[in-house]
Amino acid sequence: MSTVTSVTLCMVANEKFAIGAEATLASAVAATSAPIHAYVVAIDLGAEARRRLTDVGAKVCWVWLDRAQLELLGSFYTENRFGHWATYARVLLGDFLPGIDRVIYLDTDTVVVGDLTELAAFDLAGCTLGAVDDPLIAGVYARRLLGPDPGRTLKIPRYFNAGVMLIDLSRWRRSRVTERTIELLLERRPFVFHDQDPLNMLLKNDWAELPNPWNRLVPQPEFVPPATSTVGRSGGARRHLLLDDAKIVHFTGSRKPWMPSSTLEPAFADLFWRYVTTGRSRPLLGADHATGSQDS
Predict the structure, then answer these.
(1) 282 assigned to some structural domain
(2) Which residues 6+ apart lie within 8 Å of 144 measured at CB?
(3) Shortest CA distance to 209 belongs to which of 152, 140, 148?
(4) pLDDT for the residue 255
(5) How far are the Cα atoms of 73, 74, 85, 192 from residue 79, in angstroms, in the given order?
(6) H helices of 157-255, where?
(7) What is the pLDDT of residue 286?
(8) CATH code assigned at 31
(9) DSSP 265-290
């Protein structure tokens, strides 16, 4: 494993997710033994949010979208439960970071608890990116999107979660991932998970599987996969083990720890709020889920 002397991160942050971006970057700084250089794609991010991000201890470089990029990304957006087109900005990573060859991309609903120098040094074995296999994607949906793979235990193809990626940007550019992803998005296919679907289609044989702790998915307690899914109920009685050996904790779904509608148990919420600066208002949990009850 090569020695990593600094870590390059990229995040996409808008005002709605400003507090999430703060927790993501602050936790990354706290957990990582090397200096962090963070490229933050700022979409309608206010001055106070930008100040908070620059105060966490990383070197922050702001990336601004031009009018053409804003119009392009906005054209992909369709109204659904996830609620903002900003997520598509990650398809432009090769353009945002022209002088960077390797980057860790993090969604702004993640908390880092492991040393990112270890992730940055991961051997991609010639693949364009490394990511964690996502067992929460319904089996029938994944089969329809990518085709069956009878060699896998769950009888579904590998499908990675794009919220945490280690990317070889040189290979990404050579393979024209940005351009090809945009072409697919412009075809208006019925993608459920935004740009994550076309990225999986294009890179289905070109991604290395990261160990699960690098993207430990924590859905809301009441999450139940569709009846047609080949995966079981997420977590279930084992939800209390989700934080064990985790290196990056990812709060998936439309309700985040900072939102009053969140039903996360206290252990998960406490992890998030540990990395948010003072002066932020923490939403009050309702009595029905303040006890940390688990689904079964």
Answers:
(1) no
(2) none
(3) 152
(4) 85
(5) 14, 11, 9, 11
(6) 169-174, 177-186, 196-202
(7) 46
(8) 3.90.550.10
(9) -HHHHHHHHTTSPTTPPPPPPPTTST
Does the residue 235 lie in any domain?
Answer: yes
Instruction: Please report whether residue 290 resides in a domain.
Output: no
Q: ∠121-217-85 over CA atoms, to 5°?
A: 90
CA 154 to chain centre: 23
Q: What is the pTM of this model?
A: 0.87
Beta bridge partners, 9, equal 38, 104
- Tell how strand 59-63 and strand 102-106 pair up: unpaired
The C-alpha angle with vertex 165 and arms to 159 and 166, in degrees rounded to 5, equals 125
- SS3 at position 85: helix
E strand residue ranges, the chain: 7-14, 36-43, 59-63, 102-106, 110-112, 129-133, 160-168, 207-209, 216-217, 248-250
Q: Which two tokens stand for residue 43?
A: 């979409």
Question: Span 122-135, mean pLDDT?
Answer: 94
pLDDT of residue 1: 52
Q: How many domains does the chain have?
A: 1
Of residues 261 and 118, more confidence is placed in 118
Q: Angle at which helices 47-54 and 18-31 pack, to 10 degrees?
A: 10
H helices, E strands: number in the chain: 10, 10
Does the pLDDT of residue 178 top 60, yes or no?
yes
Closest CA to 85 of 195, 198, 9: 195
The number of beta carbons lying within 10 Å of the beta carbon of residue 289 is 16
- The torsion of the CA quartet 268, 274, 275, 277, rounded to 10 degrees, works out to 130
Bridge partner residues of 161 (DSSP): 132
Q: How far is CA 282 from the centre of its chain?
A: 22
Asked if residue 131 is part of any domain, the answer here is: yes
Print the domain residue range for 103.
7-273
CA of residue 147 relative to chain centroid, distance: 24
Per-residue DSSP letter, 101: S
